[in-house]
Amino acid sequence: MPLVTIITPSFNQVKFIEQTIRSVLWQDYSNVEYFVVDGGSTDGSVDIIKKYVDRISWWVSEPDKGQADAINKGFARATGDIVAWINSDDLYYRNDVVSRAVSVLQCHPDVGMVYADGVMVDEELTLLDWHTYPQYTMKDLLAFNVLLQPTVFMRRDVLLRAGFLRPEYHLILDHDLWIRMAAQAPLLHVGEYWAVERTHASAKTIAQAGEFVKEAFNLIPSLETAPDFEKWFVSDSSRIYAGLHIFAGKRLIDAGDPQSAVSHFMQAWRFSPMRVLRVWYKVLQALGGMVGLHSLFLAYRRMRRGVQHGTKRLAVNNTGVFWADGS
Predict the structure, then answer these.
(1) What's this model's pTM, rounded to 2 decimal places?
(2) Average pLDDT taken over every residue of the chain
(3) CA–CA dist 31, 80 (Å, integer)
(4) Are 117 and 134 contacting, i.e. CB atoms less than 8 angstroms apart?
């Protein structure tokens, strides 16, 4: 049973952190070292952490330089053969997630990291969507097809070769790491639901959606002439940059800037019309936002989700995560 290191970075997340800690501690895999790296919270988070101090391998509460700095503190202390992190507003969906990740990595010794599917919920754990992913390659990552971060488990030796999180990135820090990891060893998708991603007003994906675009457009051009990545740009530059502009369009819709989103979709069309056609519904959403119909699109989307999912809600207790309606 290889040792697994799991890290939870946190800052002023008292409303969510206990559920995250519980979802780690109720895993059925026993050989885990668990770190909680708090950035000096003042909202009562430390009191929650102290409740579980006898089951946490190491924790600290001190000012840091951001999420990357906090996670890197955990990486530096990690002794596990396998490493993961889960943010303090996310959850593991099942109690066998760690054991499944270990099993998959043991069965595929050539793979450097595994990732899986997940569930998106709102602040109150009401189901919003199921997130499923295909098997990605390096080209897909460079074209900014993103992974669900809390489902990722990495081999520590591959992480050490790739390098830790880069502090200059605050929003795409995980995607930058996945690209560097994929340059060292293949990644593998597992078609199972492993994590719950919570979206809320203060979550970075919502609160700073526009900043994602700036960081993404700093990262990808910087890789174009890098030795590990140059060949991918030579063979598939159009696909990569079409994907980058589509990513920008999606994020700018979330940022409430549909006009800029449409501009990026148009630029993506110049690189690859087929890739834009695959996300036609996002183009329509951006166009609708330009003429004041964004609220109608969201209302339709909520209605469709209600038809597809009902009003399902997750609950969390000492024994795990489960659907409150018992299904």
Answers:
(1) 0.92
(2) 91
(3) 9
(4) no
